[in-house]
Amino acid sequence: MPVDIHADRNNEDAKELTRLCLRRKRGANMFDQIFGRRYKMTKQEFLEGFSESLERPKSDLTGCEVLRYIPGWDSLAVVSLMAWVDEKCGATISPDTVRKATTVSDLYEAVQAIAASR
User: What is the DSSP code (8-state) at residue 41?
Assistant: First the structure.
């Protein structure tokens, strides 16, 4: 007799979670993150996410930029970046870590180190 996967609420939750993940731009990566697989972010992906948090064109950044000289780099951009990093690779970057970074590349390396240690 076939099993009805929709009969169990946990299966409904899993099905909804899968639907939500697949609707996102990088759904497969989020799916892997939720189910415990590590996701290593490339520098280009980080630069794109960083640009999004600043609401700038993606092609503007190379990674060598000094954070304090980037227009739009403020507390709101920091919070936006922290949320994006958490969503993207499951790494929680602290405000202190952000404050210690001098360049965009420093932030990328910090995120990679935090993601690798979890």
Answer: P
